[in-house]
Amino acid sequence: MSQNPPSLRPDLAPSARLPDAARPGQPRIGMVSLGCPKALVDSERILTRLRAEGYAISPDYSGADAVIVNTCGFLDSAKAESLDAIGEALRENGRVIVTGCLGAEPDYITGAHPRVLAVTGPHQYEQVLDAVHAAVPPSPDPFIDLLPASGVSLTPRHYSYLKISEGCNHKCRFCIIPDMRGRLQSRPAHAILREAERLVEAGVRELLVISQDTSAYGLDLRHATERGHRAHITDLARDLGALGAWVRLHYVYPYPHVRDLIPLMADGLVLPYLDIPFQHAHPETLKRMARPAAGAKTLDEIARWRAICPEITLRSTFIVGYPGETEAEFQTLLDWLDEAQLDRVGCFQYENVAGARANALPDHVPDEVKQDRWDRFMQKAQAISAAKLAAKVGQRLEVIVDAVDDEGATCRTMADAPEIDGNLFIDEDFDTLTPGDILQVEVEEASDYDLWGRILPAS
């Protein structure tokens, strides 16, 4: 069992878990999925379409007739990682199709890797399929290649990401996601509910709601009601909560109407967990970022949320070393973090991204200063996390089992999202547990980021 590292990048999805069953002679496609959970959902949709057309999914390079690399273009470091992954796929397989956010810059990719077969942009499913058809013609067997109703999943069977919208209407200066993925496009609420119902029927115990801006869901649809379901995040959360699975909300901007979600958490319909990208706390830094928030107001809002639902867990991400950030502005962020006492925190050091407006801002912060501020920020965040987890010792918590091996069971509490937050470990009486089990435990020990506990008898 491994403990969750404090420096885990908050923009990464869990590793894709590829099935490996194939009939003799069936064309096989490999998939390398990089980037955030939203990209992982795109990969699942591509593979679902390919599976329906008679392709098998290869878990390794050697068994694949071609490989799709779903790239990330969020940061320059992510772009470099994507280029490395493309290069590895070319070396190991030789037949590579590139898609995803970095695919919005085809010349950048082909300049580094001219041998790729095709380059498509984010969520361009039809173009990806066309490229696969050209490289590896389909060979479906209608009597064998039957697609399960739940489609192809790249996550463990007991949890699934549920994408409710694509794109974003914000114009944050450090971000190029709207340029790559476009403006907000919400899915109809009834379609989301239908997908969620199928997932729960297939055994999913936890639904992780994702988008670029979950709070804005339905705004582009004018919150219309269709087939009995209103396209508004509060209504959607309530409908999802009625399905009986854990419902976890990610990427929620702190708009005033978010407070309407908190009673649903207090009532147990939705997990008492909010993933909110605050990014900073100093008003001038936020202004330079073009962020739709202010530090003082968010503290007031956090206090309101905790008054309604005291057990709420708050997760956020921050950027240190943003252009123009002074030591005083950074100290304001540390003081804000002291007061906010967030439960889960991730942090980026600012990087220039090709095409981002922040590149042109004056007074860029030296790398060594960014590293120093990141270290100080994470030291404070770690201390807060350690104190909050120590306070859980002796408490009775509900957990979901993620994995079981010879050493014990790796679980998560309601306060922990997969692979980006902490774990709860059980090292006694775990032999009968299986992934997806939900049980009661008593917390016996805590570290900076993880917990240990014992199983309590079913009540």
UniProtKB/TrEMBL annotation:
Gene Ontology CC: cytosol; ribosome
Cofactor: [4Fe-4S] cluster
Region entry Disordered, spans: 1-26
Domain called MTTase N-terminal: residue spans: 27-137
Binding site for [4Fe-4S] cluster 2: C168, C172, C175
Family label: Belongs to the methylthiotransferase family. RimO subfamily.
GO biological process: tRNA modification
Protein name: Ribosomal protein uS12 methylthiotransferase RimO
Main subcellular localisation: cytoplasm
Top-rank lineage group of the source organism: Bacteria
UniProt entry keywords in alphabetical sequence: 4Fe-4S, Cytoplasm, Iron, Iron-sulfur, Metal-binding, Ribonucleoprotein, Ribosomal protein, S-adenosyl-L-methionine, Transferase
Residues that, per the record, bind [4Fe-4S] cluster 1: C36, C72, C101
Catalyses which reaction(s): L-aspartate(89)-[ribosomal protein uS12]-hydrogen + (sulfur carrier)-SH + AH2 + 2 S-adenosyl-L-methionine = 3-methylsulfanyl-L-aspartate(89)-[ribosomal protein uS12]-hydrogen + (sulfur carrier)-H + 5'-deoxyadenosine + L-methionine + A + S-adenosyl-L-homocysteine + 2 H(+)
Membrane spanning residue stretches: none
Provenance organism: Rhabdonatronobacter sediminivivens
Locations listed in the record: Cytoplasm
Domain TRAM, residue spans: 390-457
